[in-house]
Design goal:
Elements (H helix, E strand, L loop, with lengths): L9 H10 L2 E2 L4 H20 L2 E6 L4 E6 L20 H20 L5 E4 H9 L8 H18 L2 E4 L2 E7 L3 H4 L2 H5 L1 H21 L2
Antiparallel strand pairs: 1-3, 2-3, 4-6, 5-6
Helix pairs in contact: 1-2, 3-5, 4-5
């Protein structure tokens, strides 16, 4: 009689993490496997130069590249960095601030925002325009980009309602949030500079 494959439970957990963020709510059974196997997961991904980031309270886990060292034998980067356009970075900052305010004032765990609400968050930091419809369309493109990278999720059957995924807290941390007002001032200056440069062109 052959023994069961010791990797039978580990493989699905690793595959899910390699594909992206693992959420407790999406697959509770897989999540429980991850919790039970996290020591083996950390050992396995450590060989690849990765580390497991697991937030049991918030219910998500993902793999992150270990910080680079000065060692000449450092491994090549496996998890690629994705540069974000300025409006997308701005929107992520505003959503993170909104999430912090929500957590401070509400006992709920899910922050749901309408697309119009999100558009209004960004509108204050965008150059003035007479074509509000075009501005809303542009912001909607940035919203869709954030949906693609996993920080917003449309509600089932309600594409105009989006949940702010709590993993945003891991990427925009408390220290960064503490500097948000300065960063938003930089954003305003960036927008104003863009408007001035446009106005100065012949």
């Amino acid at each position: 009689m052959t023994s069961a494959d010791p990797n039978a439970a580990l493989s699905p957990v690793l595959i899910a993490l390699m594909k992206g963020v693992t959420y407790q709510e999406n697959d509770p059974q897989l999540w429980q496997s991850l919790l039970g196997l996290q020591a083996r997961v950390r050992e396995y991904v450590g060989v690849l130069g990765l580390e497991l980031i697991l937030d049991e309270a918030e219910g998500y886990a993902y793999l992150r590249q270990r910080p680079a060292s000065d060692d000449a034998s450092a491994l090549p980067r496996l998890v690629s960095r994705r540069p974000l356009a300025f409006p997308v970075s701005l929107l992520l900052a505003l959503l993170r601030k909104k999430l912090a305010e929500f957590d401070a004032s509400s006992g709920d765990t899910r922050l749901i925002l309408g697309r119009e609400e999100i558009v209004d968050l960004v509108r204050l930091f965008m150059p003035d325009t007479a074509n509000e419809a075009r501005l809303a369309d542009r912001i909607d493109i940035h919203i869709n980009r954030i949906v693609e990278i996993g920080f917003l999720r449309p509600l089932r059957g309600r594409n105009d309602q989006l949940e702010v995924r709590r993993i945003l807290k891991a990427f925009v941390d408390a220290q960064w949030l503490g500097e948000l007002e300065r960063r938003l001032a930089d954003y305003r200056a960036h927008v104003a500079g863009g408007v001035n440069r446009k106005d100065d062109t012949p």
